[in-house]
Design goal:
By secondary structure, the protein is α+β, with helices and mostly antiparallel strands. It contains 3 helices and 5 strands, in the order ααβαββββ. Strand 4 and strand 5 form a beta hairpin.
């Protein structure tokens, strides 16, 4: 398997973990220093602790969907030594709601043989 294929498989597995509400598995693909830009966020999240706080507030408010289907398409991955850049279309489907389409850029770093996301940028397109 190429590094590009490994990165895409990791991203797919990460989203599968989200579908399964398995935060522990999801977090295996994130570096502790991950920064996050998301359309609904008012500001940049600067690390996993800030991401955890956001997720706790979202989940407590009932904003996390119980049933969700996540898909990626139009993937473009570039690998330069121990840095990977993945760009893709990210589709979110929740029953009885409008399908949401996003464009995503993930920057990954390879350490100890594992690719981890160090920056995630997700922008809603519709």
């Amino acid at each position: 398997m190429t590094e590009k294929q490994t990165i895409l498989l990791n991203i797919q597995n990460m989203y599968k973990a989200f579908e399964e509400a398995d935060t522990k598995k999801f977090d295996l693909y994130l570096d502790e220093t991950v920064t996050t830009w998301e359309s609904p966020l008012p500001t940049l999240l600067r690390n996993k602790l800030e991401l955890d706080k956001y997720r706790d507030e979202r989940d407590a408010s009932g904003k996390r969907p119980q049933e969700v289907s996540l898909k990626i398409s139009e993937e473009v991955v570039t690998v330069i030594e121990n840095v990977g850049i993945a760009r893709y279309i990210f589709t979110v489907e929740v029953p009885n709601t409008e399908t949401i389409t996003n464009r995503v850029t993930d920057v990954l770093s390879k350490a100890s043989g594992n690719w981890k996301i160090i920056h995630h940028h997700c922008e809603r397109m519709n």
